[in-house]
Design brief:
Radius of gyration: 19 Å
Strand order of the largest sheet: 4-3-2-1-11-10-7-6-5
Length: 270
């Protein structure tokens, strides 16, 4: 017979599940027509009134679950939106929201790795881990995107005369996009596609739950390479760098924001 201590440990382990959950209805298809042949994309900008979190004072002691990358305080838009994001269980009184960005170069100035969002609720630590692969897509006869980098859409680019970053990440239940923008309005420059180290960045997270309740997303293609069906998480704005927010037409909504990103640690820049 299990002791009470063993039962408590087992329950805690089973509870360490977070991230997006399955939504009840399928989002409409993204019908924007955008390509890389000179067609323009309507500029999508970050809501200037979106909340920005305050700096983390001691990420080592407050986030021992993270051993690499950059950790920041995370500020959800609201408890209601956070409940939509979690969806697998109702939140009681969550606190200590953090985000960890741990990426590395995947080639061609693209970045793969993971973005994790954690919080405490009822004394339990939850940690949702969203990933973007480091390799290339497998090749299948008659398939799109054969041989493309799995992190094809994760890179720095110039937008409104500033160096910014957007990218896709996923878990088995849904996808997020992140946007990193300079905290100041001064022009930034880059060195081999990477930001100047002294530049202070803030960020935003948008989420989209997969539109299915029957099965989990497989691993043959990341959701940003899926062109139809419940696992399609594409956003033309993010793919073709027409702005910073994926937009509701792609099925995403703002989850929250964060500040004081350590770009060197977040992107494994030497």
């Amino acid at each position: 017979m299990k002791t009470m201590k063993q039962i408590s440990i087992l329950l805690a382990a089973l509870a360490l599940v977070a991230g997006c959950a399955k939504s009840k209805t399928q989002d409409p298809a993204n019908t924007n027509v955008v390509n890389n042949n000179g067609n323009t994309v309507p500029a999508v900008v970050i809501d200037p009134n979106a909340p920005i979190s305050t700096p983390v004072t001691n990420t080592t002691t407050t986030n021992s679950i993270y051993s690499s990358g950059s950790v920041s305080d995370f500020t959800p838009v609201s408890l209601s939106v956070m409940n939509q994001y979690v969806a697998t269980h109702p939140l009681n009184n969550p606190s200590n929201f953090k985000i960890n960005i741990s990426l590395a170069s995947a080639g061609r100035s693209r970045y793969g790795g993971q973005v994790s969002i954690s919080y405490l609720d009822n004394g339990i630590q939850y940690n949702g881990v969203f990933k973007s692969g480091m390799g290339t897509n497998q090749t299948f006869s008659g398939s799109y995107d054969n041989g493309k980098l799995k992190s094809e859409y994760n890179y720095w680019f110039q937008f409104n005369n500033q160096l910014v970053f957007t990218g896709f990440f996923e878990d088995q239940y849904g996808a997020i996009t992140i946007a990193l923008v300079p905290q100041s309005t001064t022009t930034t420059t880059s060195n081999d596609g990477e930001p100047i180290q002294e530049t202070a960045y803030k960020g935003y997270v948008y989420f989209k739950n997969f539109a299915t309740t029957s099965s989990q997303h497989g691993s043959v293609r990341a959701c940003w390479f899926i062109y139809q069906g419940p696992y399609d998480c594409r956003s033309n704005v993010i793919q073709y760098k027409g702005g910073l927010a994926p937009g509701p037409e792609a099925g995403y909504q703002l989850l929250g924001s964060f500040a004081t990103v350590d770009i060197k640690r977040a992107f494994s820049i030497q």
